[in-house]
Amino acid sequence: NIRMPRSFTQLEDKIREIIKKRVSRGKIDVSIYITSQTDDDLEVIINEPVCHKSIQGLRYIAEKFKLKDDLALSHILSIGDAFSIHKKAGDLDAIMDIIETALNEALDSLIEMRIKEGNMLREDILNKLSLLNEIVLEIEKRSYLVVDEYKKKLEARLKLLLPDVSIDPSRIAQEVVIYADKCAIDEELTRLKSHISQIITISESKEPSGRKLDFLMQEMNREANTIGSKANDSMITNYVVELKTEIEKIREQVQNIE
After folding, report:
1. How many whole angstroms separate alpha carbon 236 and alpha carbon 230?
2. Which of 229, 220, 152, 217 is nearest to 185 (CA)?
């Protein structure tokens, strides 16, 4: 978003190109003010049609209402748009050189600040990823026990409801297999670990990576939701809540990364 005197708006495309070469993501506000030590670059533009019509109108009023015609220059000057003062465009190439120098100095300062902030963000995100990885490992450990616990609960419930009936072990095994298939989260856990690894790799890159990271955070959130809906276990559900909380924290940080 560039704000600058209208007489220099034809330089706007060049200014945009300079910025785009150094900043690939984000909203940039640029305000350019041009001052001069002399008045040689000023010009007065008189709006003759406005002045002419205004004088006609004032004299008509004087004649209509039998007023003294004391029309003076001060009356004309009080009319809006009667004249305006503008800066001449001058030597645009010379002016562009000055703008480019100032613009690059501003971009240098901006980039230096962003690098410092980026290093802090990177450290914070890596710490959060380490916590995410720990949560994923805990979910993985718990997922191995879920099926065994279901089998034990199923057997105990059948003995309670049908104490005098002999239950076919193969039938119980079949039910356990069906349950295990419904609550299997191996693929989701594998993808989560893969996403964490990708983010760590991207954090070492010098290339702009904000959009890639934003996409990966969306994918991680999707995997967490799937785990929560499939696991059917209170402990895993609690882990998923922690997982999503940390993912959201990282996602917010990623919005500040180029």
Report:
1. 10
2. 229
